[in-house]
Design goal:
346 residues; mainly alpha; globular; transmembrane; transmembrane helix; membrane
Length: 346
């Protein structure tokens, strides 16, 4: 028995596979907390890397930078909630009303006659019913989402402000009889940050750039509900590849209701141009360690991720897939990136 145990500890691949399986099982048991864990990781990753970037150029103590950063974020949230949240709610209501009117008068529009050649009325109505049901389900979960966001925000603050202390304390786990277990957890943690963090951090940067460019174009086109459309574009931009396609559908419908097929043509041209900028400028700029996954693999991963994790699967499916590619030595991401080593103190 003792020899088998020592043989198990000496077999690094088998040992790490067992630890990984145990971690996946634990995550499955606490799947109700996955949203909080993912949000905490995203907040922490973005803040820690921002603080390190500023600290490198200013030499201001990291703890002060973290506190100032979170104060600025809280101030921004307060301004957004007080000044812009009412506008956002009003714009969402107006946009919903315009879409409802569009469907109510669909029998008299040329656009509907065109769509009806390819899509049946029952199919459209069924999708609308599903969409309304989904909206109501999301509306009822706003409270829990806000609570999850708050907890993640607080946890990320304590992690970022106590980064050095956390690193020193965590080293204590690497002593004793189970040092191998915590060493393997650290190995997977570094792999996770080195792949998942780089990819999702880059996707956030791309989403922000996409939103800014598209919003400027929509302002010049005098589209209504700019604030709502900008938020929608940002959320869809977090989904690699498919986000651009999905966001074009509501944009085209609203454009048609405002200016007919001419406005729709402008929207399509804008989306093609923005997608070209994302592909040839933003991806090389922000994704220095980009996935370079074929489109087929990307869509398959998105479908599987949505099936198992819902909306979160669309956002984190590709980063998780790349993480396992790195574990399997199929493709390595960001091996030399110092910025992603959040386990180390400044």
């Amino acid at each position: 028995m003792v020899e088998a145990w020592h043989s198990f500890l000496g077999n690094v691949k088998l040992r790490r596979f067992t630890v990984l399986a145990l971690l996946i099982a634990i995550l499955f048991l606490i799947k109700s907390m996955l949203s909080m864990l993912l949000l905490t990781f995203v907040f922490t990753y973005l803040v820690v890397n921002f603080v390190r970037f500023v600290h490198k150029h200013t030499k201001i103590p990291s703890s002060i930078l973290v506190i100032v950063t979170y104060i600025v974020i809280i101030w921004g949230l307060y301004i957004g909630i007080v000044n812009y949240l009412p506008q956002l709610v009003n714009q969402i209501i107006k946009m919903t009303d315009s879409l409802v009117q569009f469907y109510n008068h669909q029998n008299t529009t040329d656009f509907y006659k065109f769509v009806n050649k390819y899509v049946s009325v029952s199919s459209i109505n069924e999708q609308v019913k599903k969409g309304v049901t989904l909206i109501f389900s999301y509306a009822t979960s706003i409270g829990s989402m806000a609570f999850t966001f708050f907890l993640s925000f607080v946890l990320s603050f304590f992690y970022a402000v106590e980064l050095k202390q956390l690193h020193r304390f965590s080293q204590n786990f690497k002593t004793g009889d189970f040092a191998w277990f915590f060493g393997d957890i650290e190995y997977f943690g570094r792999k996770f940050v080195n792949t998942f963090g780089v990819v999702i951090g880059a996707q956030f940067s791309i989403a922000i750039a996409n939103t800014i460019i598209t919003t400027i174009c929509l302002i010049f086109m005098q589209m209504p509900q700019i604030l709502t459309l900008s938020l929608m574009i940002f959320i869809f931009s977090l989904v690699p590849v498919a986000g651009v396609i999905v966001s074009s559908i509501p944009l085209s419908i609203i454009a048609y209701s405002e200016g007919g097929f001419k406005q729709v043509a402008y929207i399509i041209i804008m989306i093609v141009v923005v997608h070209a900028i994302e592909t040839y400028v933003l991806n090389p700029q922000f994704m220095a360690s980009r996935t370079e996954l074929p489109v087929f693999y990307t869509f398959v991963v998105l479908m599987v991720g949505e099936h198992f994790f819902g909306v979160w699967g669309l956002i984190v499916g590709v980063p998780i897939f790349v993480f396992f590619l790195d574990l399997l030595d199929v493709k390595h991401i960001g091996k030399n990136k110092k910025a992603v080593e959040t386990a180390k103190p400044d």
